[in-house]
Structures are given as structure tokens and as C-alpha cells.
């Protein structure tokens, strides 16, 4: 099976020699990009999409979501609009709602969100647990996640649940809970924040994951300055996520340890907080990714185009920087090499936009510009 996409006004591939091409075409064969070149020279294929002068980008790689949860927190959001600040404690509301939701319903809800994400161009999705917070419950959430994606992250260290001491809970997370999820989760995460876990507790959980060969992520420096980023650098984490409050030492540590800064501006939008210093990070040579952080507390959106628009308007990224962070950057955060770009050999995952350039993602916020989404050479949304 092969697919030709031609008539592309603007094609972003991230190939080193020509990252952005005009009047281009691309062929996907057996799920992989097989040819990239001028539209006038395109070879024939079994199927064809005429992009009609529109834009083609690598499918978005959303490297940070919490899609498995019950209930919502619309009331908490509404209260925030009249001045109540966000605190980590709200997570417990969702833990209770998640535990009260059947596995079938959790799967149906997560699927709905994943389809929503796909329709807005997300072709690779990471999903964290973290609303179960007990051995069987965390496993159940990850069983749901693995129906949707291979990129499943164990976030038992999200907050200490009611009725257990922090020390006992940390021991449970790094021992029996990790044992119970190790066949599903490829990564482990921890929320390093006042009201959640301190540096030593995060170290204990993350190093237990590292000992099992799991990739490391950490929710770091979200609500105030803190030790999260230095723990990430010290342990060789793949990413430090949020990174809202950073010292110069933090920025240097991220760069020197090759830790990707996964920025989630929709969380700052929804919690009415200051935005992460994306420009400063890029200028310092840190790899930046953009993600939705989709969750019911701080960021109930699956839309990478919305995140890109925010990053341009609020964080000083150029549209091209933002698209790179939402594709290539996300893939780096997941330490995958075959998505997030469209060089020959990459997975045939792409988005066709009804717009003459990627700039329109920021220029026309809130407008659905996604005409079609292709995954491994198959049209999975639009057409
Ligand atoms: O990434 N910061 C920790 N976890 C989520 C929020 C979870 C919640 O409030 O339910 C986040 O923002
Ligand atoms: Fe998060």
C-alpha cells in the first residue's frame, strides 16, 4: 500500500538540508516515508491526497497527557476564575472519581479523548497513570492507557492518597506498585512540588524505575522554584515537564544533561499562571517540547494547535519553533526517532492543514485547520 500526498504548498519535514519545502510532495509506502521531493516530480502511488496548496506537517507528538480519569473539575475551574489558586490537592478529587468509574467506562472516556486528539492532528500520544494511587487502581489505569498507546507512563507518585503516610506510600510506589505495572509502563514520572513529593522522595521513585530500565520524566518547577529540574539532570531523565519557574542554574543543567524541557502552556492558561521561559530555554540550547498536559485539573484540552498558538502568543516562540517543539521536540522527550519528522524512513504520520503555511496555526487561533490526519500511511481522520 502506498500513498502520495502532492500539491503541498508548504511541507515541514525537519530534514537537515531542507526542513521546510515549497510545492512539494511525499510518498508513504508500507507505513514509512519513502520519497520526498518536488510536486512536479512525484511518482505514482496506490492512493493520492491533493493537499491543494495546503500545509503538511509531521503528526503532532503529545509527550505529556493524563488522559485516564473519571469525572471532571469544572467547578474547581470556575472557582479559579474568581480568584481561587490552583493547588496539588485537587488531584484527590479526581482520584475518588476515577476509582468510582468502571474500567469499561474509563476506556470509553479515554478513547473519546484520544479520538479528539487525533482529529486535531496528534498521531503520537503519551499517557500517564496517576489517578489510581493504589496498586490495583494504578494497574487498571495503565491497562486502559495501553489500549490507546504504547507510550504509557507510571505516575504513582502524583500525590499521597488519603489514609497513608508519605514514607509508607513512597515505599509502596517504588516497590509493589512498580512491580505491578512494569510490564505495561515504559516510563516513570513523579510530581516534585510542595504538597506532592520532595526531591528525596522523587529520587527514590525515579531511581527504582531507572533500575528497571524505564525512561524517566518529572513534573518539575511547576508552581514555584524547586529541586525538580536538578533531580532530572542528576538522574538523566528524558524530560523535565512544566519548567515554569527556572533559575539560570536549572537552564544550564537541562542543557548539559540533555533533558528535554516539556512545556505545557495550556496548564498555565487554565491556572492563570505565568508562562514558562521558552525563549530563554531555546536560546540557551535546551531542547524544548510542547505538550497539552491534558488532565481535568490544570489543562482540559487535547489540542496541540491551541498549545502552539499559546506558545507563540505568550512564550515568544516563532511559529516554526513552536511546530518543531510540538513534533520533533515531543519525539525527543519520548526518546523515539521515527516520529516527529518526515524524512525518508520516518513513520508515515502527518497532518494536512487547510492553510498556506504553518504560521496559520498561531495566526488563526481556535479555528480547526486540520483537513486530514494520516497515520502510517492510512487516512485516519478527514480525507
Ligand atoms: O500536570 N502537576 C501535576 N499533575 C497535573 C495536574 C493534575 C490535576 O490537577 O489533576 C499537571 O498539571
Ligand atoms: Fe502533568
Q: Can you give keywords for this protein?
A:
single chain, 383 residues, alpha/beta, 8-stranded mixed sheet, 8-stranded parallel sheet, 16 strands, binds N-(iminomethyl)-L-glutamic acid, binds fe (iii) ion
What's the SSE blueprint?
Blueprint: E1 2-12, E2 20-29, E3 32-38, E4 47-50, E5 55-58, E6 60-62, H1 74-81, H2 91-99, H3 103-119, E7 122-128, H4 135-148, E8 151-157, H5 166-181, E9 187-190, H6 199-211, E10 215-220, H7 228-235, E11 239-242, H8 248-256, E12 260-263, H9 265-271, H10 278-283, E13 288-290, H11 304-315, H12 319-333, E14 350-353, H13 360-363, E15 370-375, E16 378-382
Helix pairs in contact: 3-4, 4-5, 5-6, 7-8, 11-12
The structure holds N-(iminomethyl)-L-glutamic acid and fe (iii) ion (FE).
Explain what the structure shows.
The protein has 383 residues and is an alpha/beta fold. The protein has helices at 74-81, 91-99, 103-119, 135-148, 166-181, 199-211, 228-235, 248-256, 265-271, 278-283, 304-315, 319-333, 360-363; strands spanning 2-12, 20-29, 32-38, 47-50, 55-58, 60-62, 122-128, 151-157, 187-190, 215-220, 239-242, 260-263, 288-290, 350-353, 370-375, 378-382. Strands 1, 2, 3, 4, 5, 14, 15 and 16 form an eight-stranded mixed sheet that branches. Strand 9, helix 6 (199-211) and strand 10 form a beta-alpha-beta unit. N-(iminomethyl)-L-glutamic acid is lined by residues 66, 90-91, 94, 191, 219, 222, 267, 293, 295-298.
Amino acid at each position: 500500500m502506498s500513498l502520495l500526498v502532492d500539491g503541498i504548498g508548504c511541507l515541514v519535514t525537519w530534514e537537515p538540508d531542507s526542513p521546510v519545502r515549497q510545492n512539494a510532495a511525499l510518498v508513504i509506502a508500507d507505513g514509512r516515508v519513502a520519497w520526498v521531493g518536488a510536486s512536479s516530480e512525484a511518482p505514482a502511488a496506490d492512493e493520492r491526497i491533493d493537499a491543494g496548496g495546503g500545509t503538511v506537517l509531521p503528526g503532532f507528538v503529545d509527550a505529556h497527557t493524563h488522559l485516564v480519569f473519571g469525572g471532571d473539575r469544572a467547578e474547581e475551574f470556575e472557582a479559579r476564575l474568581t480568584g481561587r489558586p490552583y493547588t496539588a490537592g485537587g488531584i484527590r478529587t479526581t482520584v475518588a472519581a476515577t476509582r468510582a468509574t468502571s474500567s469499561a467506562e474509563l476506556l470509553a472516556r479515554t478513547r473519546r479523548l484520544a479520538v479528539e486528539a487525533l482529529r486535531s492532528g496528534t498521531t503520537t500520544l503519551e499517557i500517564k497513570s496517576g489517578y489510581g494511587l493504589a496498586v490495583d487502581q494504578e494497574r487498571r489505569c495503565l491497562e486502559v492507557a495501553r489500549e490507546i498507546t504504547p507510550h504509557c507512563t507510571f505516575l504513582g507518585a502524583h500525590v499521597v492518597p488519603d489514609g497513608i503516610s508519605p514514607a509508607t506510600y513512597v515505599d509502596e510506589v517504588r516497590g509493589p506498585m512498580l512491580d505491578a505495572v512494569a510490564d505495561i509502563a515504559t516510563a516513570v514520572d513523579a510530581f516534585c512540588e510542595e504538597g506532592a513529593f520532595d526531591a528525596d522522595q522523587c529520587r527514590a521513585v525515579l531511581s527504582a524505575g531507572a533500575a528497571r530500565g524505564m525512561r524517566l520524566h518529572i513534573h518539575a518547577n511547576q508552581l514555584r522554584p524547586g529541586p525538580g529540574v536538578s533531580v532530572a539532570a542528576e538522574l538523566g531523565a528524558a524530560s523535565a515537564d512544566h519548567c515554569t519557574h527556572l533559575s539560570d542554574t536549572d537552564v544550564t543543567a537541562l542543557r548539559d544533561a540533555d533533558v528535554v524541557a516539556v512545556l505545557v502552556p495550556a496548564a498555565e492558561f487554565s491556572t492563570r499562571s505565568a508562562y514558562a521561559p521558552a525563549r530563554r530555554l531555546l536560546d540557551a540550547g535546551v531542547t524544548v517540547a510542547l505538550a497539552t498536559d491534558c488532565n481535568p485539573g490544570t489543562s482540559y484540552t487535547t489540542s496541540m494547535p491551541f498549545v502552539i498558538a499559546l506558545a507563540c502568543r505568550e512564550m515568544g516562540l516563532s511559529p516554526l519553533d513552536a511546530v518543531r517543539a510540538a513534533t520533533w521536540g515531543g519525539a525527543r522527550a519520548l526518546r523515539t526517532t521515527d516520529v516527529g519528522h518526515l524524512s525518508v524512513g520516518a513513520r508515515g504520520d502527518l497532518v494536512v492543514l487547510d492553510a498556506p503555511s504553518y504560521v496559520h496555526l498561531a495566526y488563526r487561533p481556535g479555528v480547526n485547520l486540520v483537513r486530514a490526519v494520516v497515520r502510517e500511511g492510512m487516512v485516519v481522520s478527514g480525507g
